[in-house]
């Protein structure tokens, strides 16, 4: 793991939904930290609590227990201005680029809006220059793309716009929740490469949420495995995947037919379609998973 100061950290955060017997513990005392210039992959099967973790970070949910720390200080405790700074610094890229863009607005509107909100001092010409720069970063031609509506774009272009929108306000942290799972296999690698470039060029801290160990390995220096609301294993990606300690991690890896195959091969022959991922997960014997989780210790997280 990195020894730089974390930008953002969850400190023993818990969140549950429902009451009594219907209570679901979506996050149980989870702790992790995001560092500049590094991607942390959060991997787990459907329902393990990954999106809940993202929503806690985006402050859509308040933790029942635990703290969200931004540059070492609790987010809730700061003055209003620091909350505004947090909202600018932490941006999200969603799974479905179509529903995250408003169909009645052009690309220009989608990129101008966050700048008007977060950088109101920018004059018209400066704003236009900032938008052109961010579109160039995501490898789209500003003149061609700005007047278009979401339905006039391909899935890959829409996801590039979502990334450009997140980048427009100069964020420090990107939360990417399954950003390629709804895209055609032929454009997934381009989006993953873009995330990698942004991380390196802009020193972003990235939380990459996925079902899929192969893409996690491609983008993330560090990995955490989540099961039933708990983080059961974490560490540097190569060491965790090369020598998984927790039985649940081993089970997840065993559900990938050949984890050593090159990512580009699996992406381009369509092996990583969402349907396949779900089929592989359902091939894991859930009663075995539950027994393993009940009978094995949960690895402690770093302080
Ligand atoms: N708003 C909510 N109200 C009630 N239960 C919820 C809510 N959000 C999540 N849950 C429950 O919490 C658990 C974790 O859900 P979460 O969406 O975080 O999982 P996930 O790992 O992101 O799954 P997926 O990959 O399918 O999106 C699930 O059992 C889910 O049903």
What does this entry show, briefly?
With 303 residues, the protein is of the alpha/beta class. The chain has helices at 50-57, 80-89, 107-118, 124-137, 142-145, 155-167, 185-202, 213-219, 237-242, 247-254, 263-268, 274-283, 286-295, and strands at residues 8-17, 24-34, 39-43, 65-70, 73-74, 90-93, 173-177, 205-210, 222-227, 230-236.
Kindly describe this structure.
With 303 residues, the protein is an alpha/beta fold. The chain has a single domain (8-295), classed as Rossmann fold, CATH 3.40.50. 42% of the residues lie in helices and 20% in strands. The chain contains 13 helices and 10 strands. The protein has helices spanning 50-57, 80-89, 107-118, 124-137, 142-145, 155-167, 185-202, 213-219, 237-242, 247-254, 263-268, 274-283, 286-295; strands spanning 8-17, 24-34, 39-43, 65-70, 73-74, 90-93, 173-177, 205-210, 222-227, 230-236. The strands form 2 sheets. The protein has a 6-stranded mixed β-sheet, sandwiched between helices. Helix 7 links the parallel strand 7 (173-177) and strand 8 (205-210). Helix 3 (107-118) runs parallel beside helix 6 (155-167). It is globular and about 60 Å long. The model is unreliable at 267-279 and 297-303 (pLDDT under 50). Bound molecules: adenosine-5'-triphosphate. Residues 17-18, 24, 26, 44, 46-52 line the site of adenosine-5'-triphosphate. One of its GO terms (molecular function) is ATP binding. Residues 8-253 form the ABC transporter domain. Its main location: membrane.
